[in-house]
């Protein structure tokens, strides 16, 4: 014989107690609670230092004379925008960013088109091409400074000596070009990955239909592939610009900011650590952050539009 248990029934005259579901506000807090430690950490690490930098930027503050600190208002920002060295560093930053981004995009597109084809050893080639992006930025700059561009034992001059060519001092003669080559070598794989993802998301039926209609490979590339890759090209350009505008490692390692290669981040470093002008350096740093936020805003819009296109295609 098996015993069965039944839930006790409510006594006559007493209604059964009801369990109320948690409110929507409580469910929202329960969902967001695991994210609070990460949010607090991000605020402490990023936002509080930025607020401190913003406050310092309004003071005339030299670390060598702490007692002479005084409120300067927007005077530091006026000095940053009117200083010839600072304007020159801004122009160097723009030139460096535009050159690296454009060359990296062109080379990345060429490599992405190569890897989009099927051939033996494609996985190995893809891994080797991605490797430069995984190298630590300082190590990559040291590699270009000593292993490739050194005038006495560098690989470039070694190859030129083998064919009887000249032995130029690459860094002294073309300092900005040496920095650009280092950054292009490191950022081309990043552009390649983004554009390869764009190539693999093409509508293959549309491509086959174009071939059946007699379109050549060049016509398919110009009229179908490039319009499809427009968003991916914009995304690569914007993300690359965000990081290259803030690049410090290559400039510091290869030329130490000399020979007219000091970009804006390196000038901020010189102002803060060498001239000890805390207020002026903070104002320049705030301007760099504002410029990066403007570029990042456009990048986020491009990313959101890509997601909307993918959702609409699905």
Defining key terms:
314 residues; mainly alpha; two-stranded antiparallel sheet; 2 strands
Average pLDDT across residues? 81
Going by helix content, strand content and strand pairing, the class is: mainly alpha
Globally, the shape reads globular
Helix content: over 70%
Q: Please report the distance between the alpha carbons of the first and last residues.
A: 58 Å
Biggest beta-sheet profile: 2 strands, antiparallel
Number of strands: 2
* Number of helices, counting only DSSP H or I runs of 4 residues or more: 14
The parts where pLDDT drops under 50 for at least 5 residues are none
Strand order of the largest sheet: 1-2
- Based on CA atoms alone, the radius of gyration comes out at 29 Å
**Strand and helix order:** HHEEHHHHHHHHHHHH
Percentage of β-strand residues: under 5%
